[in-house]
């Protein structure tokens, strides 16, 4: 049965006051409203989630919000994730066309805040219960001691696998190391004829191989570029070997890699992928997959040092150039969207991981087997460097992933190219190794 957002608790009709500070500017106070029905504004929200897989659920929440705030119009705009970062920066710099509210990837927040494009939310109603948020996803909203957003969803990468294929191949549990993955893939191919693994040719998806060897992209304390370290070379060589050996399917092209991965997995043509909870609903609704009960979730396999995947997720942020008379309405909307009840709805509907502790006490989250499977994955996730340049690391990493997994280029040479790009274009003040 299709579930709706009906029954989600609405915000209390308390006064909403906001002291908002654009980075580097003096604080100004937003209008105070005591009656939700009296609050009137027109707000633009850029949603960067998948428009087909996730967008409808967010629209349901908007409808529910408007039951208590009938005079706050939300202009919902689906903006492709790949375009949103630069599109927002361009609009904010031009002081024209930027949304009032943005669903921002975690690494974007320090960058936007450093440019003065985000409201400082300290002292606002959004942070009145800040302790209810988990510390790691909340940390992505901090910059130079101030807070510029609240966590919408947290995530990390996991090993997602097809239980039926594993059973047919006689594999009782998920592989715990990359060496185990290679062995399992060979067994699956021999006993079922199905390909074992698909690794997306994107830099973000190679981070578990880097973290598995104890590596990282930069050392923020030492202000040093370490992306081409020996540990990282060893980690990426493991990924390259999985493809070269046939344990993993060779991606057809960088452009089609992610879509191909998901198609093959949903059609039961590949047994294992590395992906996150944002695809749970996509898998759940795939006619050929066999239902959500066929989806297995485990921590990413370990390298020689550990098992580690990147902290991901998205935050709600407000544009610092937003008209002041909109602030109270924007706060009301974000507070509703980030409430424990709204997060529980999204967890149940889409499999998204809540960022509030109290959301995990709600039955539809507490009793969700997929959410429970992802909890230890997130608990062991590796925090990324929350620096303004953090969102710029992945263009060069994507190039490296294409070179190594698709073009069979030398790993060390490709990582040296990433290090050079970081030095000349991204973290120019950092030293190179």
User: What is the distance, rounded to the nearest whole angstrom, between the alpha carbons of the first and last residues?
Assistant: 56 Å
Name the beta content range.
15-25%
Radius of gyration: 22 Å
Describe the global form.
Answer: globular
The CATH superfamily of the largest domain turns out to be: Periplasmic binding protein-like II
Strand order of the largest sheet: 4-3-5-17-9
CATH architecture assignment name of the largest domain: 3-Layer(aba) Sandwich
Main sheet record? 5 strands, mixed
Name the helicity range. 25-40%
Q: What average pLDDT do the residues reach?
A: 90
Low-confidence stretches: 1-34
User: If you consult CATH, what is the topology of the largest domain?
Assistant: D-Maltodextrin-Binding Protein, domain 2
Question: What is the overall number of helices?
Answer: 16
Total strands: the figure is 18
CATH class of the largest domain: Alpha Beta
Write the layout of secondary structure elements.
Blueprint: E1 19-22, E2 28-29, E3 41-47, H1 55-68, E4 72-78, H2 81-94, E5 101-105, H3 108-114, E6 119-120, H4 135-139, E7 142-143, E8 146-147, E9 150-155, E10 158-162, H5 163-169, H6 178-192, E11 195-198, H7 207-212, E12 218-219, E13 224-225, H8 230-244, E14 248-249, H9 257-266, E15 270-275, H10 280-284, E16 295-299, E17 312-318, H11 327-337, H12 340-350, H13 363-366, H14 369-379, H15 394-405, H16 411-426, E18 431-432
Parallel strand pairs: 3-4, 3-5, 11-14, 11-15, 13-18
Antiparallel strand pairs: 1-2, 1-6, 5-17, 7-8, 9-17, 10-15, 10-16, 12-13
Helix pairs in contact: 5-6, 15-16
């Amino acid at each position: 049965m299709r579930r709706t957002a009906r029954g989600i608790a609405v915000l209390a009709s308390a006064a909403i006051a906001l002291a908002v500070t654009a980075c580097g500017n003096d604080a100004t106070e937003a209008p105070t409203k005591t009656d939700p029905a009296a609050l009137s504004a027109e707000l633009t929200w850029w949603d960067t989630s998948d428009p087909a897989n996730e967008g409808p659920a967010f629209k349901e929440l908007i409808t529910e919000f408007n039951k208590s705030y009938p005079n706050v119009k939300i202009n919902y705009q689906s903006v492709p994730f790949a375009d949103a970062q630069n599109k927002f920066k361009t609009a904010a710099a031009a002081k024209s066309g930027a949304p009032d509210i943005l669903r921002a990837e975690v690494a974007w927040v320090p960058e936007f805040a450093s440019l003065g494009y985000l409201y400082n939310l300290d002292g606002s109603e959004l942070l009145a219960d800040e302790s209810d948020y988990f510390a790691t996803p909340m940390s992505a909203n901090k910059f130079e001691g101030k807070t510029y957003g609240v966590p919408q969803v947290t995530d990390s990468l996991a090993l997602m696998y097809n239980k039926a294929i594993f059973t047919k191949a006689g594999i009782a549990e998920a592989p715990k190391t990359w060496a185990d993955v290679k062995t399992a893939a060979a067994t699956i191919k021999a006993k079922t004829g199905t390909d074992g693994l698909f690794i997306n040719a994107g830099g973000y998806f190679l981070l578990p191989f880097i973290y598995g060897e104890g590596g990282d992209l930069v050392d923020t304390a030492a202000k040093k570029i370490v992306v081409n370290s020996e540990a990282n070379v060893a980690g990426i060589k493991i990924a390259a070997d999985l493809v070269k050996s046939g344990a993993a399917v060779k991606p057809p092209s960088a452009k089609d890699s992610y879509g191909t991965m998901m198609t093959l997995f949903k059609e039961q043509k590949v047994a294992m992928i590395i992906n996150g909870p944002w695809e749970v609903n996509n898998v759940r609704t795939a006619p050929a997959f066999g239902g959500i009960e066929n989806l297995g979730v485990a921590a990413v396999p370990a390298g020689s040092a550990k098992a580690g995947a990147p902290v991901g997720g998205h935050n709600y942020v407000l544009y610092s150039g937003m008209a002041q008379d909109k602030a109270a309405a924007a706060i009301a909307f974000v507070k509703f969207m980030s409430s424990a009840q709204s997060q529980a709805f999204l967890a149940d509907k889409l499999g998204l991981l809540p960022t509030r502790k109290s959301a995990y006490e709600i039955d539809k989250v507490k009793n969700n087997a997929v959410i429970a499977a992802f909890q230890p994955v997130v608990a062991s996730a590796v925090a990324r460097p929350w620096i303004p340049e953090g969102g710029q690391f992945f263009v060069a990493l994507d190039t490296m992933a294409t070179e190594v997994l698709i073009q069979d280029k030398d790993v060390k040479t490709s990582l040296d190219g990433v290090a050079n790009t970081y030095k000349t274009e991204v973290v120019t003040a950092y030293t190179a190794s």
